[in-house]
Amino acid sequence: MAFPPRVVIATKNANKIAEIRRICADWPVGWITHEDRPWHDVEETGATYLENALLKARSVASLLGEPALADDSGIEVDALGGAPGPRSARYAGPSATDDENLRALLGAVAGVPAGGRTARYRAVAALASPDGDHLWEEGICE
């Protein structure tokens, strides 16, 4: 598959933009961000990481007429039935900070013995074209 000439990084998170640019530094594309061509936030209403990544990528690609790269990721704690999962960024509430989410997660597993605190970090990245075609990949770190 050939690289498109430009790709929108479909996030407003400056740290994530920097991370994607670092990871994809050898991609022969021009990067577009919300600072170059603003868009409204896309609500992550999907039940899975893939659904959320595709919601963002497809929405931004359709709006801007350029391929868009988006991701969704989270922590899955076995003792919590896989929670917080796709709701990791909102675990302690809709506008919670990373620190508040971490404190809520640690509180939720406080009574779980150390040997039962298994978890993984899961990330899904999706690249969508303006016509709705897409590619995606998943990575898991136990």
Fold and architecture overview:
The protein is α/β, with parallel strands linked by helices. The chain is 26% helix and 25% strand. It has three helices and five strands. A five-stranded mixed sheet has the order 2-1-3-4-5. α1 (14-23) links the parallel β1 and β2 (30-32). The radius of gyration is 16 Å and the shape is elongated. The chain starts with 5 loop residues before the first strand and ends with a strand. The model has no long low-confidence stretch (mean pLDDT 95).
Search tags:
3 helices, elongated, 142 residues, five-stranded mixed beta sheet
Give the structure's gist in a few sentences.
By secondary structure, the protein is an alpha/beta fold. Helices cover about 25% and strands about 25% of the residues. It has helices at about 15-25, 50-65, 100-110, and strands at about 5-10, 30, 70-75, 120-130, 135-140.
Strand content: 15-25%
Q: Treating each run of at least 4 consecutive H or I residues as one helix, how many helices? A: 3
Using the CA coordinates, give the radius of gyration.
16 Å
Q: What is the typical, i.e. mean, pLDDT?
A: 95
Distance between the termini: 30 Å
Number of strands: 5
- Strand ordering within the main sheet: 2-1-3-4-5
Shape: elongated
Report the helical percentage.
Answer: 25-40%
- Give, in order, the helices and strands: EHEHEHEE
The secondary-structure class comes to alpha/beta
List unreliable stretches of 5+ residues. none
How would you characterize the largest beta sheet? 5 strands, mixed
